Amino acid sequence: ARSSVWHNLGILLMGKNGEQEAQTAFDRALMLNPSSIDTLCSKASLSLHMAKNISEICQLVERAESIKPGSFEVLLLKGSLFHHKDYNDQLGAFRNLLRAFRLQPYNVELLHTMGSFHKLVMNDVATAIEYFKQAFSFDPLDPQVLTSLALALMEGRRFKDEHDRVELEVDGLDYDFHEAFRLSQDAIALCPQSAHVHYVHGQCLEEFDQNMLAAKEEYEVALKLDPQHVEALCDLGSIYLNNLSDFQSAEKILHRALRIEPNNPQAHYHLSDIDVIVYNDVARAERRLLDTLNCTCNPRQQNVHQN
């Protein structure tokens, strides 16, 4: 019973951006009950979210699998490993997701993960939207589903506008900035303490309303909640650079992003503009872009096709 209390506390803390405290709670739960499949899977999921060492995560997965092999929880966890930048078996991850799908085809977390795989690994936004929509139909109050669907709708609309070869409607839901904006507003109302939710709402304000100052405020809220949110740092730096012409603030913010993620291509791209505009150093800008060129490719997608 005491181990369940610590486990439930960890789940609660995860929902409030208390990752370190949640990890401590899961560790306490495992000290009391080392064979708890729920706690092992929860700790592994948290470690994956925090981008911990992949070998450490895989050890937790192996422990869980040894206790309950072939279970839905373990298959979903193994299928979710594609999120980690150092995990290379994307085809294996997808196979595990398919096996989990056969067991629980209506599970919201699984549907969301399937959508994320198609969007992030396969660059198949249309199929991703289908999975996110299914997840939304089962749980329209899940902030993670709302934000993922909003981002996918915006990406699909951008793709359509750029290439004009994707049908506007997918089963009655268009690639519409208005719909994405509404979804992000709902997510804010449901989860106002989530940095990612505020970041997505900022994205929607940029795309839908062209309101850069309001977007800037959302990115700043996201960074108060999670100072390590690299995407918010990059987009905030972009606003300072391109909309406010505050090059000093932009450079400071973008270097913060690089201290967290040294090879982030978006941060380097914006800094290359500063190299040219502020320092008139075209050679440095070119070196920066060439050095980070490989960062713009999708190694996870390559691994799927190579297999």
The geometry reads as globular
Based on DSSP secondary structure assignment, what is the total number of beta strands? 2
Element string (H = helix, E = strand) = HHHHHHHHHEEHHHHHHHH
Largest sheet: 2 strands, antiparallel
Helix proportion range: over 70%
User: How much strand content do the residues show?
Assistant: under 5%
Uncertain spans: 165-173
Distance between the termini: 45 Å
Determine the number of helices (DSSP H or I, runs of at least 4 residues). 17
The class by helix and strand makeup works out as mainly alpha
Radius of gyration, rounded? 20 Å
Mean pLDDT: 89
List the strand order in the largest sheet.
1-2
Jot down its keywords.
307 residues; mainly alpha
SSE layout and pairing:
Layout: H1 2-14, H2 19-32, H3 37-49, H4 54-67, H5 72-79, H6 90-103, H7 108-120, H8 125-138, H9 143-163, E1 169-170, E2 173-174, H10 177-190, H11 195-209, H12 212-225, H13 230-242, H14 247-260, H15 265-277, H16 282-291, H17 299-306
Antiparallel strand pairs: 1-2
What does this structure look like?
This protein has 17 helices and two strands. The termini are far apart. The model is unreliable at 165-173 (pLDDT under 50). The chain has helices at residues 2-14, 19-32, 37-49, 54-67, 72-79, 90-103, 108-120, 125-138, 143-163, 177-190, 195-209, 212-225, 230-242, 247-260, 265-277, 282-291, 299-306; strands at 169-170, 173-174. With 307 residues, the protein is an all-alpha fold. Strands 1-2 form a two-stranded antiparallel ribbon. Helix 9 runs parallel beside helix 11.
